[in-house]
Each structure stands twice: as C-alpha cells, then as structure tokens.
Amino acid sequence: MTELQELRRYRRDLHRIPELDFDLPQTIAYIEGVLAPLACEVTHPCPSCVCAFFDAGVGAAHATAIRADMDALPIAEATGAAFASTHPGKMHACGHDGHMAMALAAATYVDRTIREQPGAIRRNVLFVFQPAEETTGGAKTVCESGVFERYGADRIFGFHVWPDLPAGTLASCSGPLLARSSETHIHIHGTSIHIAKTYGVPVEESHDAALAAAKFLVAERELMDELGTDEPCIGKFGLLQAGTVCNAVAGEAHVAGSLRVFTDAMFDRAREGVRRVLDEACTATGCTYDLDFAEGYPPVDNDPELFACIAPALSELQLVDEPLLIAEDFAFYQRHLPGVFFLLGTGMPEDQDNPSDSDGCPAYATSALHTDSMLFDEEILLKGLDVYKRLLSLDWLISDLSRTH
Fold this sequence. Notes:
alpha/beta, about 400 residues, 10 helices, about 30% helix
C-alpha cells in the first residue's frame, strides 16, 4: 500500500467502529492487529490503553513518545458516507480516527525504517493509544502508570485535526496553546410556593431559586468581562433548569457551565469570583447553594525548550497568535514530560471546490468538531505523518527530562 492507502484504510476502518470512554474493545483489537506483525513490544500499562515500544537498535537510552486518542463521541452520525459508524449513537466526530491512523502509519514507518535503514532513527519510539480523552482524561491514568519511566521517554508529541484551519496547515506555538477547563455545577435551594403568596414579599425573603440563578448569570458575565481584561479567560453556563410549574416560585435551580483559563493564578481568581457573585445572588434572594468545580484538564502548555529545538525542522509551522479556549487532556502529559501539541488544518482552503469521493467523503471538513457531519479526506493526514517522520529523526537531548508533579 502507499502511505495514503494505508492512512485511508486505518482511518475508515476505525471510523466504522466508534466506541466511548474506556469501553473500547473493538478499537483496541484493531490497533493490536495492526501492531502484531511489527517488531515492537505491545503493552497495556493501564486500563484500555495500548502502547507499542520500538527499540531503535542503536543503544539509544531515551525514547520519543507519540500519542493518539481512541475514544469517540455519543453522537448519531449523519454524514451518509459509505464508511459511516456502524454503532448507533456513536461517532468519531472529533477526529480521533484520524489521530489513530497517523500514529499507526507512523508505527509501520518506524518498523520498516529500523529494519531497512538501521541508524536512520536514532531514538527509541513509544506509541501511546489512550482512552477517555473526551470524558475523564485518560492521559492522566497513562502518566500514573509509569510507562514513560519504563521506556525512558523524554518527550511527547500529538496532533489534533482542526477544521478552523485550511487543509494541510500545521500550527502550534511555544507556551500556552489550549485552555485549562473546569466544569462547574451549581445547585440553588429556595422554597417553592404559589406565586400569589409572594405578593409584597421583599426580594431577599422570596427564596426564588430561578431569580437567584438569573442574578448569578448576569453578575458572572460581568465578572468574566472584568477578568478578561487581564488575560484570556471565559466562564459561561449553557444549562439552566429551574422550577416545575409556571405559577409557583422555583424551589430548586441547577446551573452548569465551564471555566476556561490559561494559568493557575487566573483559575483561582475565576473560582473565587464565581463563588463571590453566587453568594451575593443567593443572599439577595434568601437562597442557599452548593457549588462544585471539577478538577478538569490543565492547560496545554508547549515546552519552550522542546519547541525551540523542533521548530527549525518544521519550516511550514505557523504560529498560533493567541491561545484557544478549548481543552485537551494532552495537557497531563506535558505536566509529566516535555511535550508539544500541534493543530492540523482540515478546513476548506479559500477559493477551492470541495469534491466528495465515491464513498461520500468530502476533501475538506465543512463542519466543526463534535458535529454529526464532521468528515474530511485522509490525504490531509499525510502532512501529520510527514511531521511525525521528521520529529522521529531528531536525536538531540533536552536539559530537563523529568516533569513529574
């Protein structure tokens, strides 16, 4: 097979069998099937994780790690493609099928190169296929498994396909690239009584959970506007549930959203601010509350020294001007060892047509990630595979090999 045929086969085979979270039996079996004939050591250092270690055979003491996420999303696919999901209500709508395809193609390249061109790859290579990127952060479990220490990995690289960039664009930056995230859940407790009985009752004695939630949402938006003047941050709440009938004050309200920041200091400020404005809103309406901030994911923060070392080998690399307020659990790896994360454009270039092939796959992504029509052609993945090849050919060391927290 050509490399494009290889990428297409892997990606479309995997696209047909999307699975969620840690429950990935078919996906894991497929990956193991591709790795089985290769000269690598396959291990499972933690639940639902597959790792493949290649010994470069040149006495290398350190390894370069490449990461691919395996899980899909609970979305019913609507692409109509011939290789669409065969699992109802599940879809690779975030491009993880493409991430796995690039890593598998890179693994076959490493295997072939070690056999046919001894010394061309002068470092060992560790491939990490991880679960649960979309849910609980499977990367954290991988880091805690000790697999990087076992194989001497001192750097890690990964990709995310990106429909917001023109197809084939390679983008990243030194330092913060993606945000820290924390899902935020608020339960407000009031007293449900008939609205007629609230006439003339002062607001602070109304115990109106819906009113408290409304006051909080307005104040929280003003808070985030204020914090955003110092550095990029966002805190928005997409879920509001309150009350049971139209003629009674809401006795309970549930508000849920997400905080996104780039530094621990701003995260502390944002949490303190949310707690303050929520307390004020509930005090003003005579309500009480429970507030929970999820641990979430750290920010994706590309190691400056590692980035400076690889940039000369990637002349086409475009710098991201401002960090993006999305989250990715690749961040856990970067707190464990130096790492760089890349964005790979899959969107339509300007003034280009977007033909579909015989299987109904468009050349370029026309919809956003996490949508039921997200699809793109595998030719775009050749760029990612080429980047992996160049990164694997670099053999320098960096000064700080341990980032374990």
